[in-house]
Amino acid sequence: MMSILSGVSLKAVGGAQSKLLKGIAARQLHSTCDVAVVGGGIVGLAAARELILRHPSLSFILLEKEKELSLHQSGHNSGVIHSGIYYTPGSLKARLCVRGATLAYEYCEKKGIPYRRCGKLIVAVEQEEIPRLKALYQRGLKNNVRDLSILDAKGIREREPYCRGIMALDSPYTGIVDWRMVALRYGRDFEELGGTVQTEYEVSGISMVKESPAGSSEGMKYPIAIRDKKGGEVRCRYVLTCGGLYSDRLSLISGCSREPRIVPFRGDYLVLKPEKHYLVKGNIYPVPDPRFPFLGVHFTPRMDGSVWLGPNAVLAFKREGYNLYDFNAQDFTDALSFRGLQKLIMRNVTYGLGEMYRGVFIGAQVKILQKYIPELSQMDVLRGPAGVRAQALDREGNLVDDFVFDGGVGDVGSRVLHVRNAPSPAATSSLAIGEMIADEVEKRFAL
Ligand SMILES: Cc1cc2nc3c(=O)[nH]c(=O)nc-3n(C[C@H](O)[C@H](O)[C@H](O)COP(=O)(O)OP(=O)(O)OC[C@H]3O[C@@H](n4cnc5c(N)ncnc54)[C@H](O)[C@@H]3O)c2cc1C
User: Fold this and answer.
1) CA 299: distance to chain centroid?
2) Rounded Cα gap, residues 309 and 268, in angstroms
3) FAD dependent oxidoreductase domain spans which residues (predicted)?
């Protein structure tokens, strides 16, 4: 790979070069490489790592708009290693989650990343939830989720002394980890293998270069130009984008269709006061409502010893807006003028208003949580952090539930691959997703 910053050619390679690039990120970057990966979340990093492992002789750069890697979805999530219970048997989501969880445990073990296999109960508190709970059990078995069993009320109390329920699905294989820590480790692997990480590079254009630049000895070897707003240009042979909340906009700038559109949904967490941590041992989840893609508010112990409760799911007025009042005019008008979102809102007005109400009034959220732990009171919780989910929607207002790849048409289409939707639990599945993306890259590009 060749890098030129403000006319100075950098001879250093790999990690050393990358540190240098970070240090002078404010200046214009001009660089060439075989493959550029846009987006330094857990999906982009897992894919970049897998690609460089498979193709060590090629040059790679990973471009991230923030100062640090994985500050968005990959750094704002529940931190659960899901076991793969919920997903339709045979679906990509199910297969990637089950394989991803196994790979994640192995990876954490190998790299010394702390994790806890603290298990999870999916608890039915109403009789009407029992058929759905039993169906989930069957689904989990079909998905080859390990060690699943059904518990009665007594069994629930033995596992979680403060939890009340009539029946539960016990998944001891479920765990917790700090997903950002995992993502940063993928990034370190990538750099150690010779890849370059460039932060503070916000990609604003992806296009074919028509002419060979005057005097360039590279000719048309690197026909794709990836530009940023500061005037930087990375030339490469192939591009992979993994833009999370901006995946639709990254696709659009290379000439792809706007759909599926990303609509941001913010999830606010409450945190349990330290003196009440004894109430929760492992993950406690509700039986999910099949009408919605989110798993419902849950109790989740964290690796730092805290316990998070939530999240709810409300339409966010800014794509990376983590506060209730965060607002971005473009994001807001973009979302509300989209026919797909209008249809979704019309179909789910009551649910949406309920979620917003519970986001504002802690008492209402606590009331739901009390169904599982009656001893919990409003005095025991504080407002906590939030995450924003990239929810892909089609024009009819359907939530896109599985992976979507797109390359567009024409010359660019044969050289660009966009990961347009990498839905939850993409952190759990990340190593398996990395393999799948690398397979797709190899299928589409002549590496
Ligand atoms: C509230 C919440 C809870 C969740 N809980 C779990 C869980 O418990 N377990 C689990 O497995 N999954 C969970 N998930 C899902 C998981 O966190 C995400 O699926 C995963 O992190 C997605 O990773 P990503 O790399 O696709 O996106 P991101 O992490 O959002 O990364 C995208 C990156 O692209 C960068 N980018 C965007 N545009 C540009 C540009 N123009 N130029 C350069 N860079 C750009 C962004 O800055 C960002 O760093 C949760 C998600 C949320 C929101």
Assistant:
1) 20
2) 9
3) 34-439
**Selection from 376, 294, 394 nearest residue 339 by Cα:** 394
Condensed to tens digits (0 to 9), the pLDDT of residues 297-352 reads 999 999 999 999 989 889 999 999 999 889 999 999 989 899 999 998 888 888 78
434 lines ligand 1 (CB under 6 A): no
Q: How far is the CA of 224 from the centre of ligand 1 (A)?
A: 25
Considering only CA atoms, which of 74, 83, 81, 98 is closest in space to residue 186?
74
pTM over the 0.85 mark: yes
CATH architecture, range 2-73+180-260+402-444: 3-Layer(bba) Sandwich (3.50)
pLDDT tens across 153-167, in order?
Answer: 999 999 999 999 999
Report the C-alpha gap between 255 and 75 in whole angstroms. Answer: 29
Q: Does 37 contact ligand 1 (Cβ within 6 A)?
A: no
Q: What are phi and psi of 25, to 5 degrees?
A: -65, -25
Instruction: Establish whether residue 78 lines the binding site of ligand 1, counting it when its CB lies within 6 angstroms of any ligand atom.
Output: yes
